[in-house]
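Q: Fold this one first, please.
A: Sequence and structure below.
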Amino acid sequence: HQDASAVAGKLADIVNRTCARGGKIIVPAFAVGRTQQLVVLLHELTNQHKIPSIPVFVDSPLAVNATTVFRNHPELFDAETREYLLQGEDPFGFRNLKYVREASESKALNDLRGPFIIISASGMCEGGRILHHLKNNIEDPRNTVLVTGFMAEHTLGRKIVDKMLEVPIFGEPMRLRAEVAKLNELSCHADQNELTEWVKPMAANGLKKIFLVHGEATQSAALAKVLSGRFGIETVVPERGETVELS
């Protein structure tokens, strides 16, 4: 994964070009962890004047509750976030940030003109308030759908990532005309290089076989090829339901 400054720079580019169009940025995000990560990043970028001071709405009751838990446990923050606290800043709150609880407040966002940012759940767009925001904004080319995490096969989020011409929302085909931007660097999953480095010390200590059991078939097959090629260790991607006897 890229370092924090590169990720912040990429996010700033996405926000700035959408703002230049007068568009809205719709962000499907997991309510716990990813939403708070995005809020802190947007806070930093706003403070540093790297993005315009536009409204940011966190529209997810679960995310609002989770953020309260984050606030109550500053001892678990990383050094950078603790530094914010020492400066008297709330890392999860800034002037243009609003947490939305009520359904009526969520619906009212549809009447606002951009530019602004909505962060909402569910992360893979399979339920929750994000569906309403996508339905109301996905056909406008001024807008951006910002994807910040993995989208499993067959989910609405994956269809958006794959830039299908039409995507089904509430059973209705919607034309995907908004820009689709990806910020994969926020993923909590290790990438291929990180996984290879993780295996390295075990390979040096006599590791005999590797089973890859989490991931999509194409990515798992590619990683298996890398691991077996680099370490000379048999690397297997088991079939669904396959039984393996260890001895």
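Q: Good. Now the second chain.
A: Here it is, same layout.
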Amino acid sequence: MMEDSNDVASVIASIENALSDFPELKQIVLFGSLARQQAGFDSDVDVGVEAARSLSVEQRMAMIEALALALGRPVDLVDLREAGQPILDQIVTTGVRIKGTDTDWGRLIYRNIMDNEDFVPLQKRILKARRDAWINR
């Protein structure tokens, strides 16, 4: 377990060490309260990862176990290939890049922009219609 569980540099070093046995990972991002340095004693660790292919359940479980043992906290592991809104927006706007190329990061940002322009307005209209229907019943 880490000495200072809220120090971003310590968290990043622990994540790098814990995931060093997973060479298939081409991108790793810390996001959430630890990345924003707002974590409480009971906060989990939010980590986004990306491999060339979607991760299997077994791979995810092994990564979660390695991270939880290294960090001493519950882990929320997100496959960046499958991340949707609003998590993807949180990852690209407040995340701390740990591993990955600028090209991979740029592709993730581009996908976030496209999702926000195409999908999020539709999502908001659907939620508004549901709210209005519920309020006016």
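Q: Anything worth noting on the second one?
A: The chain has a mean pLDDT of 90.
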